[in-house]
Structure of Probable inorganic carbon transporter subunit DabA:
Amino acid sequence: MQLGRKLWIRSLVHVAAEAVPFFWPMRIFVHHNPLHELEELPFEEAVKVGERLFGGKGYLRRAQALKLLRNGPLKERHLKTKVRALAQRIHPRPAGIDVEALLYTLLTSERRPWQNRVRPDLPPEAVRTLAQALQEDPKAACDAFLRSIGEDLTLYEAIDQVTGAALGELIDDLVVKGVMDFLDEGQAAISMPHREQGLFQAWKALARHNLRFRLKIGPHFRALVQRFSSPEEAIEYVLTTLKIPEALWENYIRRELTRLKGIVGFIRWRQANRDYYWQRRFPADIVDYTAIRLLISLAVLQSRTRRLPFRTDYAAFTAFVRHAPEQTYLRREYFTGRAALPYAETLPPHFNRPHPFVQTYTQQKAAWEAKVFLTFLADWLEAAHLSLNALSPETILDLHALYTRVTEEEGKVWLEALEDSLLEDLLSQIRLEARPEPASPKAQVLFCIDVRSERYRRNLERLGRYETFGVAGFFGVPMAFVELHKGHEEFLCPALIRPRNVVLDMPQRREPRRENLFKRVLHDLKENILTPFITVEALGFLFGLDFVGKTFLPVGYTRAREAFLDARVHTKPLLDRLAPEEIEEVTRTLYGEVVRTALEKELGLRNVSSAQLHALFEDAVANRERSDVLSALGVPEAAHPALLRTLRETYRVERGYVELVKEKLRGIGFSREEQAALVANTLRSIGLTQGFAPLVLVLGHGSRSENNPYESALDCGACGGAAGTHNARVFCFMANHPKVRELLKQKHGISIPETTHFVPGLHNTTTDAVQLYDLEYLPSKLLPVLEGVRADLEAATLHTAQERALELGVKPEYAEVLEHAYDWSQVRPEWGLSGNYAFVIGRREVTRALDLKGKVFLHSYDYRVDPKGRLLENILSGPLIVGHWINMEHYFSTTDNEAYGSGSKVYHNVAGRIGVMTGNVSDLRTGLPAQTVLKQGEPFHLPVRLIVLLEAPFAFARTAIERVHKVRELMHKGWLNMVVLDPEERVVRRFMQGAWRVFGSVEEVQR
């Protein structure tokens, strides 16, 4: 294949794949918009395209919305306003009918046309007129069907619709098993061989001997697969063999890729993250996947040709449909479930001889559907005090068209009415009157903007002189963190950011007294009533066996285990950049060990001196053909070139790679200037530039649950799906350093008193406990202050946990909340971010003392310290986008949990340590599980687009918004509800229908 053709096919596949959003591995679950790749479209249009691509519904069902209308928070007047607007858009309008009243009657009832319900007293003329309008033309229906192939259907999906062969399910199963074997990250007992060669080559090698393919497809599959050396050749061959018109290739491939959007999304993510450990070891490529899928589909189609009334290529199938449209029509009616219920089982006998039955059937079907609709229409009209018998046939046709229009738009009506209701409730609580700040606060506390922090902040503030702030939970420190003993980087920042700095976790000398702790854990377990059974098994947690402890003692056992693990080697992050001479020394030491390993492995040489290792390293890097060191070690000179070449090619002892290593080392840590700038930006963005308290707590957040593959989904989105502990610690080490404080004062105008100390901690959102770290660095004079703060933290923990317990359905007692969190059979350890609906950017005085029920993101911001609006732009372009992703993940997981969410956890199995499947074989399930967004099958989360309330002068806010392209696009395309609260004009404005509109004065919205 020519290079140009190969590149064209690769670009075709990559463009087709763009519709599928990334899917991150579960251990670093990142909330994202399931329709992220469609955000350039208006929201309503994207929902329609998403339904076509992924089969997912984008709005609440009417029955669900009605419960919100009856029980709150959806308000009747807002629904009526939206219905009025819909009625005004309908043309032509049925004569003599109050369309608005009729529409409201429809939406506030659960009446729908039911297939098995027909009234006997329907007007015959009305039935006849509507049936004539509804009767289908088999040929026209088949023409539309053919046009959908390559757009909405693959060839085998089209064949399934006329045969019921379920080829698509078979192809999916074969693709899943083969590809997931490759993607496995250590779960499989036996690893797939040859993975280092890449996805396509490894799969090809496996397919040569795979019994499953032989049984399901046939012996010809092996020869088919082995004829291609590259995936691009395979793709072209399959599409050509299937005779798919080249103009349809891109859309055809797109449809293939959306069949398994979880696996495809994960491969796309891996391919875009080439530093990912498993991608470096075993590279996966979306072109490889496409080739595999197309080869399997071709083989399946060819293996089924003898059983079908046509050859299995596009040209033959098209010819069959055009030659026999009536037969095709009857087959599709039957196998897709489109047939009218009373007549469905009469169809199969007429498949081969459709004449004259097809004409009779289309008439019967149209008459039946007309009767079903008219039965519904009669009920609908009676509820609106109208009579079906009083309407002309023309009016009935208009009402049928109206009903069709309403069913297309009612989801949007309910959505906007719910959003207006929630916005009204939020604005009615806002207060701009200045409240006195706590005089000389006992402590200031930085929380993540996460909605779960709102409850804790409120409960802590009620206990006394506390000033709290909300900021993205990575605290403005994007970094790649290498934890002690792990050896690989973890990106602790929003997924939007790729960190440039690496922070290493270094051991800190400290006596952990592990032996004493071990004895205490033993003693506690022996005191338990289950001593004879539990003690031995509970000790297993020290060696990886903790089943019994988790089952019988979820609280006591887990606390003991955590206490032991917390006593591991104490660490301190390495924050400072390495000096040039340190980089050179580390590089020489590193490569000295590489060369030592090479000499031992290749020549069996040991006891080589460090000087010789370094000299040989220099020879390899300088591209020399011989080495005095090798001669001194007794290596024949003729063997020098081969060995030096092996060092360069196999062990990467060559100039280019050495420079890459040095560049990597240069990325370790931050300069003092960088540290000061990061601290300054964070403090300034939340308005904390003066009046520092003696203690400033910096609390990241994380979750704690057992047997929960979705645990990282409960962690911090701003930390890339990890807990915020490391970011909090790093920020505090920076902020406490004397030289950083000196730079803060000199270059940034922020003077932090010597008496102020920053303390990192973690808010466990599953138990609401707060743990503080690095207290050994706390000045002794602050210990009394710390004790008082700790007591208040414990009280705030109890209040917050009791508040959450009511939503979780457990007793409002802390012991019950703990047991709920540590119970490894619990499918809902906490509600997480479910219920989020708003994002407030502004001063705390705007929301202080308001009970926002843990449903609102709170980002501190004071426009008075941001004259150019740059800090606001950072908030809009970072934390707000993350909030939008979280909101959309919850939105679509609620509106269609099967298509956009991941279904029930009860049926989940962990797959390859990267995600979950439903049952033994399925796509990787994306989105959130039912237990996160649904309660007893009904929405717990309110699926609305994020309401952004920004407190700042309007002109100032509008300028900042317009500078951030992504936010401007989301706002104009209807993905966000943007509201500006101007504290100086005391006016609220909302962006609606492409323009800013005055929503009301502060006094008006507070009524």
